[in-house]
């Protein structure tokens, strides 16, 4: 088939990408695109994810049961989509457990979308980044199935999951996932925390680093910088779900007991690898 090369290189593609491909071959006009899509959807080679977004089904595979790579879908939901939060941890193979939801950040994220049992949820880039024009701070690229995906770095991801725990699972999930990372560029962690400028988030990052000072080789200067950012009054670890716990005066944080004591690690130390994210 004359368009097989495009399908191989674009396992998930947008209508705009297909239009550019057709234009490069001299096939211009909306009708040419509509006819091509209609034909391949009828034959089961292409499946519509949402308006303007499609996925390719390999020859011989069942269009109704073929497992579409959700990371590729999430990365294409908007032009500026960046895989983030728990989904970034999964992509890096550092998530404690696999989730059925996939999170991306964007300037104008779409409403939640369900496709093939996966839920795709978007988060707006933090206002502080938008004001500074630094939405791409700590964003890197990686290749998957021949596609280039944008994903937050481990350093930005650490801060993001602590900043938005509602997008990242339980505190056990967050703590165990971050604890599986052997190295962070802590200067970048602190820089990003200051870029966000959220006192509570800065305190949460500081508390986590202090708890893991030895394995992460945290220096006094990192903790001091974050300590200066902390809130002046006690704040809850998760302000939307105020749960009683232990006040950590140094960071002005009310921390749930299971997080402060890391009770889950007593009986299940090292078990995260058995539940590592999909690669």
Number of domains: 2
Largest sheet entry: 4 strands, mixed
Radius of gyration from CA coordinates: 22 Å
Note the beta-strand portion: 15-25%
Helix share bin: 25-40%
Description:
With 279 residues, this protein is of the alpha+beta class. The protein has 2 domains: 4-56, no CATH class; 70-267, no CATH class. The protein is 40% helix and 18% strand. A hairpin with a 2-residue loop joins strand 2 (46-50) and strand 3 (53-56). The protein starts with a helix and ends in an 11-residue tail after the last helix.
Nutshell version of this structure?
The chain is of the alpha+beta class. It has 13 helices and 12 strands.
What is this structure's SSE topology?
Elements: H1 4-9, E1 12-14, H2 15-24, H3 30-43, E2 46-50, E3 53-56, H4 70-75, E4 82-83, H5 85-91, E5 101-106, E6 113-115, E7 118-124, H6 127-132, E8 139-144, E9 147-152, H7 154-163, H8 171-179, H9 186-196, H10 199-211, H11 220-229, E10 235-236, E11 246-248, E12 253-255, H12 257-261, H13 265-268
Parallel strand pairs: 5-7, 10-12
Antiparallel strand pairs: 1-3, 2-3, 4-5, 6-7, 8-9, 11-12
Features:
279 residues, alpha+beta, 2 domains, 3-stranded antiparallel sheet, 13 helices, 40% helix, elongated, disordered C terminus
């Amino acid at each position: 088939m004359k368009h097989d090369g495009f399908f191989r290189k674009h396992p998930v593609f947008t209508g705009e990408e297909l239009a550019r491909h057709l234009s490069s071959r001299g096939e211009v006009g909306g009708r040419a695109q509509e006819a091509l899509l209609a034909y391949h959807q009828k034959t089961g080679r292409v499946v519509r994810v949402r308006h303007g977004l499609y996925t390719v089904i390999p020859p011989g595979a069942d269009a109704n049961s073929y497992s579409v790579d959700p990371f590729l879908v999430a990365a294409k939901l908007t032009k500026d989509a960046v895989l983030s939060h728990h989904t970034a941890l999964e992509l890096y193979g550092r998530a404690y457990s696999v989730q059925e939801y996939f999170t991306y950040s964007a300037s104008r994220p779409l409403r939640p979308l369900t496709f093939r049992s996966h839920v795709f949820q978007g988060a707006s880039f933090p206002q502080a980044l938008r004001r500074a024009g630094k939405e791409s701070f700590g964003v890197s690229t990686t290749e998957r199935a021949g596609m280039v995906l944008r994903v937050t770095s481990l350093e930005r991801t650490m801060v993001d999951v602590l900043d938005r725990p509602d997008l990242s699972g339980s505190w056990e999930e967050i703590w165990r996932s971050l604890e599986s990372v052997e190295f962070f560029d802590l200067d970048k962690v602190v820089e990003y925390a200051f870029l966000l400028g959220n006192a509570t988030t800065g305190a949460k990052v500081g508390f986590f680093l202090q708890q893991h000072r030895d394995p992460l080789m945290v220096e006094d200067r990192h903790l001091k910088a974050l300590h200066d950012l902390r809130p002046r009054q006690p704040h809850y670890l998760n302000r939307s779900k105020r749960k009683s716990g232990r006040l950590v005066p140094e960071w002005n944080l009310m921390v749930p007991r299971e997080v402060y004591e890391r009770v889950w690690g007593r009986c299940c130390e090292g078990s995260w690898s058995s539940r590592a994210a999909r690669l």
